[in-house]
Amino acid sequence: MRLRNWIAVVASVLLLVTVGIVGVFVNRSALRAADTVHRADTHALAKNNATLAGRMQLLSAKELLTLTEGRVFDLGVGNSKDRKALEKLAKNGGTFSYGSAIASLDGTVLNATRTHVLPASTDAGYAPMLRSLRAGQPGFSAVMLVKDSTDAAAPVAVQAFAVPIKVGGTPRAILIGYNKIATTTLQQYTSQLRSEGSLTTFVDGAGRVGATSDGEKIGTLVAPAVVTAVQTITAGFEFVEYKSGKTDMISIVEKDEASLPGGWAYVRTQTKASFDGPVHSRSQNINVTLLLMLLIGAVGISILGYRTQVQRRRADERFQALFQHAPDMVAVLDADGRVAYSSPSAASLLHFPAGSLQGSTVFALVHDEDRPRMVEAFAKLLTERDGVLRLQTRILNATGQATWFDFTASNQMHNPALTGIVINARDISENRAFQERLHHEATHDALTGLPNRRRMQDALGSSLQGDAVAVFFVDLDGFKPVNDAHGHEAGDELLRQVADRLSACVREGDVLARVGGDEFVVLMPGITMQGDADAMSNRVRAAIERPFLVFGNEVTIGASVGVHLATPSDDPDQALRAADHAMYAVKHLGGGRRAASEQVEPARAGRHRAEV
């Protein structure tokens, strides 16, 4: 009898040990899966914010580049004409209100604004900017601290942007614009990311803080461990764990020159406890519980079964509590793409009844245009053990409306705790809209809303790849007297009305662009006959010559129209110069006459008066 009892006790203990070991491994696997999803999501956020910040930096550099393209600088030391151009940039540009300067190629300052104290030419922060310029890219400096005045309480953190000033296509000097980091668009955006649990920063190559969700930290240095990671990473990301006093901290460092130039990096810092969340603490509790169960193994199979059921139920409750109110969608798919589990947020974000997504195929929710790409990517992921897939796609909600989501999918088919594809999805509609708005602003004229020169040149090059294009260069006659007599606001209003009238003259598929000042360009693909081009010229002149009512004043102007009938073999830039030259010939003939075609006088290569 005793032997049987000992056998029962030993069997119970062995069974408990076996179940305990299995429980530890299952818990560890679930924890790894949750960590994988959480870290992948954290990296996705870091990559997105770093890319967005990089695009903001490049837009600022384009503002400088626009000034160099439309102006001839004397490049003399202290030249008054150059200084006026710099002061105008600082006053009217907005981005570089702190100041601007012209420097030689080695960084020696030739001219500068005097409103604020600018960083000395010997400041080490210029080094990454000069390296980028030598590589043929726009330059971005590190954070530079400047004592703006003798009575200033603290130095001002500024950043410099630079583009080359070219003469005859060869860089001769550098145009530098300075912004006060605390007032930049990037700082305004980053401050909106402020939360009690984390700190978002953009740091330079030395680890000095630029834009940050905590404005008081601008110009300070991040933790030494993070500085080391910033200086070590060349392209990629790293999770850095370190101690701040007695507190365990973790930071994700994202650094990629292609996304965020100038050696800058994105850093998001929080305590290790808040990063790990309740999953890790509950996991430790489970392990302790299992060890206690091993010590009381003699209690029997009945208690073992009871404890096992309790632990399973608690694990389910933890899982539900973790994702019950999460803003991101979390789901587990089987090998056929059907939903085995979905978090409550999945149904609420897509406006489906709770639980209605269970068992449905995820591909039915994907937009028709994105579905083939999604099916192919899913099939490929199934063949990769522990594979991780990142993609952005449109998902249809209950009303059929498409919403952009950023997906992270992890192949956990081999994981006994999940046995599926783990999906983490975040609504990125606002970010997509913001990126599209930035793109629109970069390719359209702010005053008239028409495409700008860059957009027009892209359209001309694309059209000439397979079709003839009639290029009309329109220059307003008598526009300057309107500005002189009624002011620049009246001139701006007149330009807007001219844009409206010209828009009414073009066909669907034509391109109307404002290329600078009072000059417009119309591209009409498919026009090959001179008679059709003349008819369009007459319509344009007739539309412009009708009186305008500007702020209660009747204004009359005219238009000179130059035409070039470009063939697919023509060079886009040469075609535009030919139309410009034809317009210039018309203006010398008296303006307002019949539009001159490209045969009026051969185009002179290299002259393009539309530059402003």
List keywords for this structure.
612 residues; alpha+beta; 6-stranded antiparallel β-sheet; 5-stranded antiparallel β-sheet; 16 helices; globular; disordered C terminus
Entry summary:
This protein is α+β, with helices and mostly antiparallel strands. The chain has helices at about 1-70, 80-90, 125-135, 185-190, 225-230, 270-275, 280-295, 300-325, 345-350, 370-380, 430-445, 455-465, 480-485, 490-505, 530-545, 570-590, and strands at about 100-105, 110, 140, 145, 155-165, 170-180, 200-205, 210, 235-245, 245-255, 265-270, 330-335, 340, 390-395, 400-410, 420-425, 470-475, 510-515, 520-525, 550, 555, 560-565. Helix 7 runs antiparallel to helix 8.
Kindly describe this structure.
A hairpin with a 5-residue loop joins strand 14 and strand 15. Strands 1, 2, 3, 4, 5 and 6 form a 6-stranded antiparallel sheet that branches. Strands 8-7-11-10-9 form a 5-stranded antiparallel sheet. The protein has a 5-stranded antiparallel sheet with strand order 13-12-16-15-14, sandwiched between helices. The C terminus is likely disordered. The protein is of the alpha+beta class. The radius of gyration is 33 Å and the shape is globular. The chain is built from 16 helices and 22 strands.
